[in-house]
Fold this sequence. Notes:
The chain is built from 14 helices and 19 strands. It has helices at residues 30-38, 42-48, 86-100, 122-136, 165-190, 198-210, 222-228, 231-237, 291-306, 351-361, 378-384, 396-408, 442-451, 483-494, and strands at 2-6, 15-22, 59-63, 70-77, 107-110, 155-159, 215-220, 245-252, 261-271, 311-321, 332-335, 341-344, 369-374, 389-393, 413-415, 433-434, 459-463, 469-470, 477-478. The longest helix is centred in the middle third of the chain and has 26 residues, at 165-190.
Amino acid sequence: MDFLVKSSSVETLKTSTLVLTVNEQLQLDSQGQLIDTLCAGAISAVLEAGDIQGKLGQTLLLHNLANLKAQRVLLLGIGKDAELSDRSARKCITAILNILKNLSIKDAALAFADLRFKERDAYASARLVAECLADGLYVFDQFKSEKAPAIHLKKITFVCTAEQQHAVEKACKHGKAIASGMAFTRDLGNMPPNICHPRYLAEQAKHLAKAHKKLEIEVLEEKQLKELGAGALLAVAQGSEQPPRMIIMHYQGAKKSDQPYVLVGKGITFDSGGISLKPGAGMDEMKYDMSGAASVLGTFKTLLELDLAINVIGVLTCAENMPSGGATRPGDIVTTMSGQTVEILNTDAEGRLVLCDALTYVERFKPQAVINIATLTGACIVALGSNTSGLMGNNPELVASLLSAGTKASDVAWELPLFDDYQEQLDSPFADIANIGGPKAGTITAGCFLSRFTKEYPWAHLDIAGTAWISGGKEKGATGRPVPLLSQYLLDRAQ
Ligand code: BES
Ligand code: MN
Ligand code: ZN
């Protein structure tokens, strides 16, 4: 999808479809009024006739309006509020896409210069629109014999004021780059686990690096992982035929001496639970247990597209969690890269095991901050649902910047506490730490486990079990989150 920004008058714009807004008071905005005047009140006549009520997300397509350069006008209802919330804005974009993608048109134009969004300036408003438009056209049909109908729509023009022009251009560029990172993340999450295994993720990282000279990739295989003492990662992988990989991506956008930001993603390409086997129903969805790693890859795609002037290191810690005669048992004790020993009481709490070694590994980079991203706990879905990622950390400033990045990017997170009181749930009679706590506060005890390995740097943990994936239903699939949040965080650092 290409975005174009024009601040010329809406009356002179040649387009196949011009989108105009109408509210529940049946008012057009200033751009709409110009068009209405031009076609001798044809639009007000339609409004007076009561063909559209301006309800949020309502649409009406009008053809053959006299005197217009636009072939069609698409009226979009924006409801009764003076300002659109993110949720309402998304609803509107979905509604217009549902019309536009079924027309055999190549381009459309949005006359949104007067449209106001809650707590968003011209940049942030246009960014949300651009990102929703680009992401809304995502399809995953590579394993279908019959492909989804081709979408002809290739270009969308934002018709804005001269004052908005610069901000809207920047917003389109950023929105497009974020949506392309999300699409990459969604593809990887949707990919079947027989194809998307740890070596496949390594190949994906290498592909990215091939096209960009600021990116270099290092892939650690079993032998090197053994030498490094990555006992926890290796323990998770030992039940599977698929060998583990630790993939390190170095992006150098600033001078070498600048301390990097580090993103660490959980890359369990299938989580059967291991010997602590999961129930069968819905187990297919555990292919998305690599969404943390996929979100790091997606964020790198965005980062490369925007060519940000910072240094970022991405680490994907990848394995498959399977039961077999070689798998770890409940009761096994392993030694992590940090030297701390872990009693594996539940082999299904494997995410923290693959993460802890990666979190020790990244100490060598002297990071400014480390953010790990993981589909870590079902308890996070219980606590926060599917729209809010769980956030924990050891540094209030870092946590605050991530919360604010989430709000700006409309990809929200909420903090959960890592109070010391929770730590004792991880006591083990036989090893330094147990890999599970009790039945209470499962998301927090998982965070507590990680906190034992992150004392050397400012650290935050995003639990995306609820937000990375839509379960069941016809919308089933990867969402591309939290690429917007992470990209925003990096954009904010690069400024
Ligand atoms: N990958 C799962 C977490 C998960 C569960 C994500 C459901 C999305 C949907 C993780 O590895 C896991 O199995 N966690 C266990 C932890 C428990 C054994 C302490 C869980 O949440 O049940
Ligand atoms: Mn698990
Ligand atoms: Zn898992």
